[in-house]
Amino acid sequence: MSPFPLSSLISRPLCGAVTKARPPRPNARYFVPSAGKTYARFQHADAAKRAQIEKEFRKDFKKDISKFWLKIGTVTVGLGVAFLAAPVIYCDPVISKTAPGVVSSPSQDNTVPTQPSPPLPPPPQSSLKIYELTFGTVCGICAGVFVKKGAKAVAFVMGGVFVLLQYLGSLSLVRVDWGRAATRFENLFYSTDATGAKRPPNVASLFRWIVDFLTADFQQRATFVAGFALGLRIG
Hints:
By secondary structure, the chain is mainly α. It is built from six helices and two strands; from the N terminus they run H-H-H-H-E-E-H-H. It has a two-stranded antiparallel ribbon with strand order 1-2. Helix 3 (135-170) crosses helix 6. The chain is extended.
C-alpha cells in the first residue's frame, strides 16, 4: 500500500515521479508543431509572388502607355504636316440668278389666260394578252410541250445508246471512233465567226434557231413565243 493516500495522478507530480515514455502506436495521428511555420512560409512566398506579378504588370502598363502616346503623337504630326502641305482651294462666289421682275401698270392688265393642255393619249394596247388564248398562243403552247417531251425522249434514247456502246466497248465487242464522231458533230452544229474560228452553240442561239424555225411565215410571232415559253414550262 502506498504511504500517501493520494491518488496516483496527483502523487506523481508532487513526488517528482517520472513517467515512462509510451511506445508509439501504429497508425496514430500526432500534432506537428511545424505546421504554423509552413503556413507562414507559404504566405511569404505567395506575397512575394504577388508583388512580382504586380511589378511586371506595372512595367508592361507603362510600356503600353508610352507606345499609345507615341502613336497618338505620330498621327497628330502626320495630320498637321498634311494640313500644312495641302494646296489652297479658291471657290468662285455664288451669283444668284433671279429672273427680272415684270412690272405691270395698274391701268393695264397684261395677264394672258392659260389654256388647259390637251389630255395625253392612252398607252398603246399590247397584242399579247395574258389571259387570252389566241391562235398564236395555243400553237406556241403545243409546240413547247412537243419540243420539251421530244427533247426528253431524244436525250433518253441517245443516252441509252451511249451507255450501251460503252458497255460493249468494255467487253471488247465493239470499238467506237469517238474522235470521228466529235468531228462530225462539230461540222454539223458548230458555227464559224469572222475570224474563222469555230464556236459551239449555246442555249440562247439554240432557242433563237428553234423560234426562227417555228415562226417562219407565221404572223403571230409575239403570242407564239409567249405560248412556247409557257409550253416549255408546263410540258
